[in-house]
Amino acid sequence: MTETGYTNTIKPVRDWSQRIWRLMFTQQVEIARGRVEGAQPVAITGTLTTTGAVTDILIFPGSTVKDPSVAPAGGVQMTIVSTSAQDSAAGTGIRTLRFNYLDADLNPQSEIVTMNGTTPVLTVATNVRWVGDLHGLTFGSVKQAAGDITVTNSGTRYKFLDAGARGTRSTAFRVPAGKRLVIHSFFAGSSSGSAAAKAQVSLVASVLANLDGSVDRFEDVGLLFRQGTIELQDNTTALADGAIAAFPAGAIIAFRVTADKAATVAAGFYGWIEDVD
């Protein structure tokens, strides 16, 4: 005990804002520990290295697009292929990978795909509506992707895992059915060596709230709108102050960047998904 009668580890709150923050922090810890039924933590991070100026493009390796590719409501079968023969069952790169996706009903699913190098492999699933994270499951001697791995359907690219990586590094996320996404913090950073590039990183989503309480939704056509923006110049900024935003089931959330010259940009968020009441 201290002379004030309180321990040094837990002190009384000074005001309601601090009390709310403490309750939020406690909830985040309990969710991370798996102690909150129906809730699980979510961490999304992505990177992009540009070779010059870009305007409003999604943050993931090799990105050139403003909005994500969205599969038809009934879902499709995906094709997975590498630019290297070494991403194969006996190769030095990724041998098998975990393919996470949302099905036609936006329920989370996954399957294990055995790579076959430059020969395309079809997913078992034929009802893929959203492609989530990909990551290597078993590896050869180099312990990373030997080539660029793409997920496509009828020429449309839905996901990209770049050579030298072990998993996708995309900021795009879609909320599963029956869930709500709560973002409690996000970050963005930009570096450009001696060039001092100016970067504008925006949190974007497929939902827009109106003053009358209604919500306009655009995920089925893959259109994303700005929710907030951070200005950067060879620095990193993080915003962490309890629950920052919440998004409904089916919503798509991502980050975009505008930069005036070549730069390496990273962005992401931390939060959780919880059962809808």
Ordered list of secondary-structure elements with their pairings:
Elements: H1 16-32, E1 39-49, E2 54-58, E3 79-82, E4 94-102, E5 108-114, E6 121-122, E7 130-139, E8 149-153, E9 156-161, E10 173-174, E11 179-191, E12 198-205, E13 207-209, E14 215-217, E15 225-233, E16 235-247, E17 252-259, E18 264-275
Antiparallel strand pairs: 1-18, 2-17, 3-6, 3-8, 4-5, 4-7, 8-9, 10-17, 11-16, 11-18, 12-15, 12-17, 13-14
Please tag this protein with its features:
mainly beta; 1 helix; four-stranded antiparallel β-sheet; five-stranded antiparallel β-sheet; 277 residues
Describe this structure in words.
This protein has 277 residues and is mainly beta. Helix content is 6%, strand content 47%. Strand 4 and strand 5 form a beta hairpin. The longest helix is centred in the first third of the chain and has 17 residues. The N terminus is likely disordered.
Summarize the structure.
With 277 residues, this protein is mainly beta.
Count up the helices.
1
Total number of strands: 18
Largest sheet: 5 strands, antiparallel
Structural class: mainly beta
Distance between the termini: 42 Å
Mean model confidence by pLDDT: 89
